[in-house]
Amino acid sequence: MTFSTLRALHAVIGGAIYDIERVYRERSQDSGLEYPSLDEPYYYTAQHTPEEELAEALKGDPAVAAASKRIVAACGQLATTVNKPWFGLMEDVQRGQFSSAIRFLETANIVEILREAGPAGLHVRDIHRQIFELRTNLKTAAPEDTAPLTPANLSLHASGHILRLLATGHYLREVAPDVFANNRASSYIDTGKSVAQLREAPEKKYNDTDGVAAFVAMTGDEALKFISCLTEWALPEKRATGTGTALARTDANFDYRAPPPELALAPSAADANGNGNVNGDAANGDANVNGDAAKEKEKEKERARYVAPFNLAFNTQLGYFPWLELRENAGRFVRFGHAMTGTRQWEIKHQILQGFSWEALPEGAVLVDVGGGIGAQSILVAQAHPHVHVVVEDREQVVSTAVSAWGPQYADLFASGRMSWRTRDFFEAWPPLTIPALGPVDAPAVFLLRLVMHDWKDEDCKRILSQLRAAAGPQTKLLIGDMLLPNACADAAAYEGADGSAVTFPFVTKDSPLLPNLGVANLHGYLIDIMMMGMFDAKERTVDELTALTLSAGWKIVEIRRTPGSMWAYTTAVPV
Ligand SMILES: C[S@@+](CC[C@H](N)C(=O)[O-])C[C@H]1O[C@@H](n2cnc3c(N)ncnc32)[C@H](O)[C@@H]1O
Predict the structure, then answer these.
(1) Which of 273, 318, 321, 347 to probe ligand 1 with, by most ligand atoms within 8 A of CB?
(2) Which atom of ligand 1 is nearest to the CA of 449?
(3) Ligand 1 pocket by C-beta < 6 Å: which residues?
(4) Residues annotated as part of the active site
(5) Which of ligand 1's atoms lies nearest the C-alpha of 452?
(6) Where in 26-69 does DSSP place strands (E)?
(7) Residue 117: Cβ within 10 Å count
(8) pLDDT value, residue 500
(9) What was the pLDDT predicted at 347?
(10) 235 CA to middle of ligand 1, Å?
(11) What is the pLDDT of residue 304?
């Protein structure tokens, strides 16, 4: 590292600011439109002036978005270079505290409380009082098994310190000592619900929202807990004792892979899961241990116990989705559906509409959204393309609650029959459909798999893809929406696809001082990769990995439409 590299990074930042300013100037006809201030909240449900709307919308302009990413990448690289290693290390290794503080902000409804307080903000004593007024309501937006806060859990002092950490990390503003207000970053988590609505119906907090708050809550709850078990899961050191439970994992004699005693007689992991996720590793059993079949079976059972850090953290043999459907997880289950709406934010607005040539489909074409949840993405297609019929397939419990999760906003669409749900296990053969307005459908025009492949190991994905391949007609397309991760090193793979085509196009020019994958500006893709490891022992994939996987199930990738500068892509494949 030399001064010339520091200067080159500085120049990247300066050049990118110039690019952003140029777009703002040109698009506002030189009216002096300013870049949105971090200090000013922007609530997506509120009324805005045309200038405010344009200033916000331009952040999504491809040139602005790309320049912003260069700034983030360069600042990250520059900061890591010049920061005292101890400070940088502490910021990173203690990041969990910041994550917990953001979850607290969301779960305590502080963003909504501060929205109503306005730009002058609210003293922490008044914030604290309102948190309690909401939380001591009998109903709670938090998962059912969460006891309401009591003064013993949360002191005034604690609230103030958590909020100050957030203000220091640019998530709030401390406008006067102990007085906090929302800023642009915190306002992004707003649900738009009034405090009165949250008091009246806390369980509806995420209904009719953009899902961002639900995603924050889900990540801060389940994901933060299971990811803390990553190393214990990956590097179990203790040997079997046959006693203890995962929840007692601080016991020095505890073996993370030993079966919890109360589950010793439970059905096998495969039976409990019902979809093959948890027993994925068991199939790789070492067949020759002492030649003793009973012992081998027992060993296999043990290996299957904690397939992913999630299983370890929550002491369950169930896969994540069946676990979510347990009665005690009712709140988490509903929240997960809304969190999937939040995942739209990985894409540019309504990216699914640009991810495929929907307009080229014939009248009455059928899109099957496989593992589509509440249909958070395919509903955008149904709305924008009246010639397309959408059928969402998912597990029974998801299907039975999907329509009610949307509230009244799409009632006409559902009543028209152009968007419907049916229960299907995607590991089973695809049964032909009958759509009242169209009659029997032997093969759909498109199978969509969005955020599904990344939930599963390769062998499970192959099973899912093979079932779709068996059901496909010659014109059926497979559309996969997931992250596509490039390497972080400057080899050719970061610049081109497996077949040499420019499918992943460069994120940076070859002489740039930035990492070829844009480093921390694209960290989100690599974080989700590890989140999937934590949840399912699954992963996000590279272009090469996805190409090989789809081919193994009879699908050939023909097009990749990447969100500019992002890890997110829609990949189209056809039957081979
Ligand atoms: C990460 S979510 C993605 C939801 C949706 N595709 C989206 O992008 O919003 C994965 C979905 O797969 C569903 N799923 C899990 N196992 C399934 C199975 N065996 N058969 C059908 N759906 C399943 C889950 O219920 C969940 O809705």
Answers:
(1) 321
(2) 6
(3) 275, 321, 340, 371-373, 376-377, 394-395, 398, 425-427, 450-452, 455
(4) 454
(5) 10
(6) none
(7) 20
(8) 42
(9) 80
(10) 29
(11) 52
Question: pLDDT at position 154, please?
Answer: 67
Supply the DSSP symbol for 89. Answer: H
Q: Which domains are delineated in the chain?
A: 3-89 (no CATH), 94-205 (1.10.10), 206-341 (no CATH), 347-575 (3.40.50.150)
Cβ atoms of residues 540 and 517 within 8 Å: no
Q: Name which residue sits closest to atom 13 of ligand 1, judged by CA.
A: 371
Calculate how far, in angstroms, residue 287's C-alpha sits from the geometric centre of ligand 1.
33
0.90 surpassed by complex ipTM: yes
pLDDT in the model for residue 168: 98
126 three-class SS: helix
Q: How far is the CA of 167 from the centre of ligand 1 (A)?
A: 36
Residues of the chain with pLDDT under 70: 1, 136-154, 237-292, 295-305, 489-506, 565
Residue ranges with strand state E in 397-545: 419-423, 433-435, 439-441, 446-450, 477-483
Distance CA 358, CA 354 (A): 8
Q: Give distance in angstroms: CA of 148 to centre of ligand 1.
A: 30
Distance of CA 501 to the CA centre of its chain: 29
What pLDDT is recorded for position 535? 96
